[in-house]
Amino acid sequence: MQMNFYMPTKVIMADNCVINHSEEFSKLGTKAMLVTGKSSAKKNGAQDDVIAALTAQNMEYVVFDKVMSNPTIACAYEGAAFAKANNVDLIIAIGGGSPMDAAKAISLLAAQEIKEEDLFSGNYGKEVIPMIHIPTTAGTGSEVTPYSILTNDAKQTKTSIAAPILFPEVALCDPKYMMHLGMATTINTAIDALSHAVEGMLSVKATAVTDVMAIESIKKISACHEALKKRELSLEDRGNLLYASTLAGMVISHTGTTAVHSMGYSLTYFKDIDHGRANGLLLAGFLRVVEKEIPERTSRILEAMGLKTVDELKVWLEELLGEKENITAEDIAKYSPIAIQAKNIMNCPVRVNEAQITEIYKESFGI
After folding, report:
1. Which CA distances in Å does 261 have to 149, 178, 310?
2. Domain range enclosing 137
3. pTM
4. pLDDT by residue for the chain (367 residues), tens digit each?
5. What's the CA gap between 363 and 358, in Å, rounded?
6. 24 lies in the same domain as 121
7. Are 157 and 338 in contact (CB under 8 A)?
C-alpha cells in the first residue's frame, strides 16, 4: 500500500476553547488582524471571545470586517493591503467559509507580491502570515484545508488557490458559536460537509485513511438528519456537525473535490445559490452516474448513510432542501461548458464529459 497523509493544522475542539487556549495566539504573533464578515462574528460571540483572548495575552489587534459571501479577488487584495498597512503578524479568521477563504488569500498576498493574473498559478514562495481559524459554521472545513476559493469574474466561476502554506497553524472549534445560526445556513453547510465527504470517497486521490474519515463524517451528518429536518438542533447536534465538517475538510485536503463542486460553482455564480445548497441539488445526480461504473463505492456511501439506493438519497436531500430553484435549459447550456473546464473534473473516478454534465443538471432540476 502507498499512502501520504499531511495535516499540519493543530485542531482544538472543545467548549470555550478560544478563551481557554489564548496562549495559542501569542505563540504565533504580537499584532493580530481579525478577518470577518460584517456582523455574524459579533452576534455569535466569537469576536468578543477572540478579543478577550488577545487582551489576556497583551496583544494588539485590528479588524477587517469587509468579507462578503463568496469573497472576491478584490476583497483579498484589499485585505492584504490593510494587513501590510497595519504591520500585522497574525491573521485570525472568524466565520464560515467566506472569511476563512478570504483570510488565506490575505495571508498569502500580504506576505508575497503576486500579480492578479498570477494569483491562481500555484507558483508561490514560502512566505505567508500565520493563521488561526475559528469556524462559526459546520460546512466548509476550511479551518483544516490548504484552499482559498475566490469568485473569479474573468472566468465567471469560483477558482481555488491551493498551496500547503495555506494550512492554518491552529483551528479552534467551538459549537456554541453555531447555536443561533439560522436553519437555512445550518442545513446548507451540513450538506456542504456531506458533499465533501462523499466527493472525497469518489476522488481518484482517495486513500484508505481518507475513506475512514469520510465514512465517519457521513455517519455523523446522517445521524443529524431528523434534527435538521425538524429544524431543532441541540448543542450536541451542533458539535457532531462541526466534528463531521472538520473531518470532511481533512478528507478534501488530500482528495480534492469532484464534478459536484465544478457544477455547483455556476449555480452560485449566476443564480446566487448558496454553495452547500448547490452541491446538495446536484449530489444525487452525480452519484447516479458514478454508480453505473463503480457501484461498490456508491454502496459504501449509501450504507454509511443508512440508505440503500440513490433514489433514497435524493429524497433524503430533498427533505432538507425543499423547493428547487428555477433553472432552464438555456441556463444549463451556459453552465456545462464552464463546469467541464474546472480542475476538479479530473478528480472524478468516472470520466464525465460535457453531455453527462448537462444530463446531471437536467435530472437535478427535472428538465
Report:
1. 11, 24, 19
2. 10-177
3. 0.96
4. 677 899 999 999 999 999 999 999 999 999 999 999 999 999 999 999 999 999 999 999 999 999 999 999 999 999 999 999 999 999 999 999 999 999 999 999 999 999 999 999 999 999 999 999 999 999 999 999 999 999 999 999 999 999 999 999 999 999 999 999 999 999 999 999 999 999 999 999 999 999 999 999 999 999 999 999 999 999 999 999 999 999 999 999 999 999 999 999 999 999 999 999 999 999 999 999 999 999 999 999 999 999 999 999 999 999 999 999 999 999 999 999 999 999 899 998 888 999 999 999 999 999 8
5. 9
6. yes
7. yes
> ∠ CA(149), CA(151), CA(153), 5° rounding?
145
DSSP 3-state of 117: helix
Residue with cell string 494550512: 167
Q: Per the structure, how many domains does the chain have?
A: 2
Looking at the structure, do residues 290 and 161 belong to the same domain, yes or no? no
